[in-house]
Write a structure and sequence with these properties.
Rossmann fold, two-stranded parallel sheet, 14 helices, 13 strands, disordered N terminus
Amino acid sequence: MISPTLSNNIDPGFARSVSERILREAGKVVVGKTDVLKYIFISMYVGGHILLEGVPGVAKTLIAKTIARTVNLSYSRIQATPDLLPSDIIGTLVYDPRTNDFKPRKGPIFANIVLFDEINRASPRTQSALLEAMQEKQVTMEGITYKLPEPFIVIATMNPIEMEGTFPLPEAQLDRFLLKVIVDYPTREESKEILRRIHLIEEFDIRPVASGTDILMIKNMIKQVRISDELITYIIDLVEATRKHPHVRLGGSPRAMISLLLTSKANALIEGRDYVIPDDIKFVAKPVLRHRIILKPEAEFEGITPDQVIDNVLQKTPVPTPGV
């Protein structure tokens, strides 16, 4: 395994410092949820998108808004509804009589950080428009292509128990999300802290503690984070094990392998390292894989979840030994 010596053009300490500043500032409003916040950092640093799933009232929107405010980037919020049209998101061309020409009126998708609330309430047509923006980092209006700002990240939220008036995301669109994170209820201690600080939380003014340049610098560092051949093999073994699992109908794709690689490198930077260790891969395994695994009907009937499958795969897949 690669020894922990620093590369010439990479500064893991910088990445760790930026992450700690954002985490500290966000922690003034968001109680607990440290792992959820780190997963959002990872998405920003990789340049991917993240889906936050949880029942109403667990602070999904608050977490997304708070992170957006800690970074000095443009931010927009889109509330999904069944009648939301693609033009409501990407914008449209508007006739300007002064110039006798059409000019683009850009929609809320033209922001660095876009919060798409309750994405499963949007119609399939609108979801498809969002898909192009997420995948291609561009949108098309009347045949004209417009680039989106850089960095660009979509933070989508979804309520798993709401069925009426919703449109389930197809597997192809779910796969476009780098991570799917489950936002659970707070612990008893976190609940006490929320109630103690409720008025401070409501009134606290979050200030930017990082810039878009900081995010792009960290993003450029990821390609230089080193990973041993043994750990690359470990990633392949994990993903292949999901395909061969007896409860799985469709396992992780090559995109899942790439996502595991990139997110584990981003986590290494957050921890102040320029090399990946097995714990980095384990930390991102569930959010990377849970929405890319399709269970067999009989497994779903028995109440088995993708997370249980991933736990089983992590337990049974041999971890490379340092120094091998």
